[in-house]
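QA checklist item 7 of 12: single-chain prediction sanity check.
[x] sequence parsed
[x] length recorded as 346
[x] structure emitted
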Amino acid sequence: MTPDRALLRTALCDQLGCDVPILLAGMGGVSRAELAAAVAHAGGYPTLGMVREPPDLIETEVKALRAVTDREFAVNLIPAATDPGLLDAQIERCLDLGVRAFSFFWDVVPGAVRRVKTTGCRVLHQVGTLDAARAAESAGADVIIAQGLEAGGHVHGRTSAFTLAAEVLAQTRLPVVVSGGIADGTGLADALAMGASGVQCGTAFIATDEAFANDYHKRRIVEADGADTVLTDVFVLYWPREAAVRVLGNSVTAALGGRFLGHDPDTLPRDVIAWDDGVPRLRFSTDSPLRTTTGDLEAMALYAGQGVGRIHDIVPAAVRLNRIADRAATLLSARGAPRSAERGNP
């Protein structure tokens, strides 16, 4: 029997112009046009990961995405971790290109939210705490993405995804998206059942054909389980002091015992361990290995969330998304009960 995907449709789908409420996380370096297009074509909502990227690359990726789809998308920028001059240029280029939605993360920067909102753009803001959710809503965000401790990559809070989402849902009428450790349809079904409007997935889409991640990173994800991930602050170059990341354990985290040591990016050595199209990649940096990266890939930040143990193969992004959607629809149908009223309804 074909799963009834009508069970998955929320008001957020109408708001974002997607068929199913599955968002591609704006993973820096990884979520480029090829992956974004594949997610869009499969019915999800894609985000281009453009943190700290030069405006010319943003333009290249936006144009490449628009060349193959007319679906809606967002561009992910991180104001608090970007030089103000670069951030200004990034936003200006996006606006010049007619980008209609932005995804922001980390500390809420009201000026950045207001700037894009005054042009009519939509803002999705990922947060890790209830206070940040309140700040994002106050600044004018249209959608709150509640990121839990289980998430791969940069992790802002210390609360589990569904616990944080429940707290945010109780405080807002905005659509709330759950993010962190969601790698299959069970997470989506549970999110919709609690009244959330959708989910955001990152790690699940790294292990896809279209992701711009290095094949080494993809293979490590397929081979790993949740116990192999480590929350650490050692990969902190280019980010604020003590910024936490969840990665697959490697020689760098093993040497530190996976501990938080208050790493200050200004005091860490700048040792080159890899290269990316002629650009040096440093030990302790936030750079993950991409298709174009060569060198000591094992010592780089191999981002992965705690849902990694449910990812067993490298497949086209459409296959991954369809598996999540179909499993969620099947579970919701079997439960036979209508989900809670989700936020964001007219």
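[x] summary fact logged: The chain has two domains: 5-211+311-335, 225-303.
[ ] second reviewer sign-off
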